[in-house]
Specification:
Layout lengths: L2 E3 L7 H7 L12 H12 L1 H16 L5 H23 L6 H8 L2 H34 L5 H20 L2 H29 L20 H7 L2 H4 L7 H4 L7 H30 L3 H5 L7 H45 L6 H4 L10 H20 L3 H6 L2 H21 L14 H19 L8 H4 L1 H20 L12 H12 L3 E3 L1
Antiparallel strand pairs: 1-2
Subcellular location: Membrane
Keywords: Membrane, Transmembrane, Transmembrane helix, Transport
Main location: membrane
Length: about 500
């Protein structure tokens, strides 16, 4: 016989936060749709597809589109695990508080340290890539200086919008959501229906990318086409204390982000493949930036210009969402006394109710990285190489911590629950994550030792510096915030809501 909690009414937001040891400091002005928009614009299929379309085709050919299905399914399982966790712990910071409450202070410190740097590097990369769209929109010649100035413009514009408060952030995220849907689903459908130049069977044609070897090697090499696309949904949980009824709404928003993001990416990626006027040139690597040519030939100059407006809006919204998520993570980290300058970082503005100082940090470090990239353009690939792996490492630290607690007897007490399926979903999500990290950590084959191992080198530097600070400064000893209390909190929530255990 096993014991399962019976369904019960959930706590109101203030009471739930009180059980977790915190008080209300933010305005709960973010709706379900605004929360979904935040996660979706962070995930940003437009940014992901545009960034990796040519690379995916050159490495894996048209069948690389199937990575969208594979990774989408795997990350959906991860989002289900996260959904149960955030439903019990609807507090700011996402990865950090989840890892802390599921495992402990040191474990959470390392998970947050890796994730913070991965997010900050991602902010820099998205702003850098977005600068190219800005330059095209306004007819600015792309030079290192113009790229720097436009990158800084995107970073500062997002910062000012974030300073304006949660409502402004939510509105911009919703505008970005509309831009994303037009840019990926709208354009993708138009290309599929009216501008198709290839047969659908092309997605089963490797077009010789494997050379003399087996195709499976080339297919695995194109995994980044999917792995780069499906993160960002966790940002829905980073702003939990600004969402009304977060224990119910955030899990649904994360799941919807994955589902809509996956459909959007399929329409976009598939539309570009089928509308490509010279697909062999893209697959052979001769055409390294094919999307502008595809848009120009299918939409015309005016249509391509309109798309640029949509793309710039999506990039700005993506940077804004990334800054917002990073600042809430920094705030949550600092609120528990786990960072140098934690009192300054944990301040919330009295009028707009945003963690302004954490936002400043989330903008300043990407600015400094952009300056380094201005000095050496090759650094862009180097500093961003470990970002995706770092994010997957942080994700799987939470998934592993959740599974550990389940084996110790934890039954999630939030209103979103997988019930008896929870442990199976958790195990498969962990297995998927290990597989994804293995693919991401594979060294290159260029013969340049540094370039081939840059992913692991970057992650090693971040992990190494984090461990040094952890064991020298011992921030875990300076914090008295709760940790490793998943079972205790679950029991407290059930006691408050009147849930009981029944034998089955």
């Amino acid at each position: 016989m096993s014991s399962e909690p019976t369904p019960a009414s959930s706590l109101d937001d203030a009471a739930h936060l009180e059980v977790l040891g915190y008080q209300e400091n933010f305005n709960r002005s973010m709706s379900f749709w605004a929360n979904f928009a935040l996660g979706f614009t962070y995930l940003s299929p437009l940014v992901g597809v545009y960034s990796l379309f040519a690379t995916a085709l050159a490495v894996g050919g048209p069948p690389s589109i199937f990575w969208i299905f594979i990774v989408g399914a795997g990350q959906l399982l991860v989002s289900l695990v996260f959904g149960e966790v955030v439903s019990q712990y609807p507090i700011h910071g996402g990865i950090y508080p989840w890892a802390r409450r599921l495992w402990g202070r040191r474990y959470a410190w390392m998970a947050a340290w890796v994730y913070i740097w991965a997010m900050i590097v991602t902010i820099t990369a998205v702003a850098e890539y977005g600068s190219g769209f800005l330059a095209s929109l306004f007819g600015i010649t792309v030079t290192p200086l113009s790229t720097l100035l436009l990158t800084l413009a995107l970073l500062l514009a997002a910062l000012m919008l974030n300073f304006s408060g949660t409502k402004t952030m939510a509105r911009v995220a919703q505008i970005g959501l509309a831009a994303e849907l037009v840019g990926v689903i709208g354009v993708g459908l138009y290309l599929l229906i009216f501008q198709r130049k290839q047969e659908f069977s092309v997605f089963f044609d490797t077009m010789g990318v494997q050379g003399d070897g087996p195709y499976i090697t080339a297919f695995f090499g194109a995994a980044l086409a999917g792995l780069f696309l499906f993160y960002g949904f966790e940002a829905c949980g980073d702003v939990a204390e600004e969402v009304a009824n977060p224990a119910r709404r955030i899990p649904r928003a994360m799941i919807l982000t994955i589902l809509v993001g996956g459909v959007s990416a399929l329409f976009s990626f598939g539309g570009y493949v089928l509308a490509a006027p010279d697909l062999p040139a893209i697959v052979s690597g001769k055409e390294t930036d094919p999307i502008p040519a595809i848009l120009e030939s299918t939409l015309g100059s005016v249509g391509a210009k309109i798309f640029l407006v949509v793309a710039v809006t999506a990039f700005l919204s993506c940077v804004l969402s990334l800054q917002a998520a990073a600042s809430r993570l920094l705030y949550s980290f600092a609120r528990d006394g786990m960072l140098p300058g934690h009192r300054w970082l944990s301040k919330v503005t009295p009028r707009t109710k945003v963690p302004a100082n954490a936002l400043i940090v989330a903008c300043t470090i990407p600015v400094l990285l952009a300056l380094l990239i201005f000095v050496n353009e090759d650094l862009l690939n180097s500093v961003t190489a470990f970002a995706v792996l770092g994010i997957y490492v942080a994700f799987q630290m939470v998934v592993l911590a959740a599974l550990r607690q389940r084996f110790k007897g934890w039954k999630p007490a939030g209103p979103f629950s997988l019930g008896r399926w929870g442990i199976l979903v958790n195990i498969v999500a962990l297995a998927y994550g290990i597989f994804a990290m293995f693919l991401l950590a594979q060294p290159g084959s260029s013969g340049n030792l540094f370039a081939d191992w840059i992913v692991l080198i970057g992650l090693g530097v971040v992990l190494g510096t984090g461990l040094v600070y952890l064991f020298v400064a011992r921030p875990d000893r300076k914090s008295t915030a709760p940790a490793g209390d998943a079972i205790i909190v679950a029991d407290a929530i059930r006691e408050r809501t009147g849930a009981v255990r029944t034998l089955r």
